[in-house]
Design brief:
This protein is mainly alpha-helical and about 180 residues long. The protein is built from twelve helices and no strands. This is DNA alkylation repair enzyme.
Length: about 180
């Protein structure tokens, strides 16, 4: 872990990515106690996870999987953070829940972050909404009926990407 700490603190993006990918691979084979330590290591070092690819490639496999059977309040704390990358971790980690057919946290966090000022958050929100729609179109449609007019254009376009053209136009015109 001390060597991972050195890598994750590196000024070089590639070194940080290497550290995080090692955490992901170790997490896959870890005991529950080791998973707990890796999860805590990941979040303790969130300030170094400072690029969209570092977040997107790693957080679902560590934070998301870890929280599948646990209290998810930490995600809501991250969503309320002033740090863009912690907010993105909160949003993107929910893909692990989506894969299991669980949408509540994704939709709640998307609702909190949908008016975020940063385009990278618009993309993350739209992406997770699109993933919900792949699993359950009706759930996404219900969400969009309520929030399409509030979603930034980028988030909306990502969310409706797999809809037929007439439905895409319907939601785009609501905007």
């Amino acid at each position: 872990m001390s060597e991972l700490q050195v890598l994750v603190e590196s000024k070089y993006h590639e070194a940080r990515l290497c550290a995080l990918l090692i955490v992901v691979e170790r997490f896959k084979k870890a005991s529950p106690a080791e998973r707990d330590a890796l999860y805590k290591f990941y979040l303790k070092n969130a300030r170094y996870i400072n690029n969209w690819d570092l977040v997107d490639v790693t957080c679902p496999h560590v934070v998301g999987v870890y929280l599948l059977d646990k209290d998810r309040s930490r995600l809501y704390e991250l969503a309320e953070s002033d740090n863009l990358w912690e907010q993105r971790i909160a949003m993107v980690s929910t893909v692990a829940f989506i894969r299991k057919g669980e949408f509540t946290d994704t939709l709640a966090i998307a609702e909190r972050l949908m008016t975020h000022k940063h385009d990278l958050m618009h993309k993350a929100v739209g992406w997770m909404l699109r993933e919900v729609g792949k699993k359950n179109r009706n759930t996404l449609t219900d969400f969009l009926e309520k929030y399409a007019t509030c979603l930034p254009r980028t988030a909306l376009r990502y969310a409706i990407e797999h809809y037929p053209e007439d439905q895409r136009q319907y939601f785009l015109k609501k905007k």
